[in-house]
Design goal:
Elements (H helix, E strand, L loop, with lengths): L6 H19 L7 H28 L1
Length: 61
């Protein structure tokens, strides 16, 4: 059960971090060509991560 210790707080913190950091580091709107594609892929990946984090929260809560 040690794996479930503070899981909800950690998930909320990671979700908040992703909401703040994703637009800062994956600013695809300022780039062109292959670099833009790479940044869009990173942006979409970081948008999908909170769903997995929140799924862990419901499993351990």
């Amino acid at each position: 059960m040690i794996g479930g210790l503070w899981t909800a707080l950690a998930a909320a913190s990671l979700t908040l971090f992703l909401i703040v950091a994703t637009p800062m580091f994956h600013n695809f709107w300022n780039h062109q060509g292959p670099d833009r594609t790479s940044r869009i892929n990173g942006f979409v990946g970081n948008v999908a991560l909170p769903s997995g984090i929140l799924a862990l929260t419901t499993h351990y809560a």
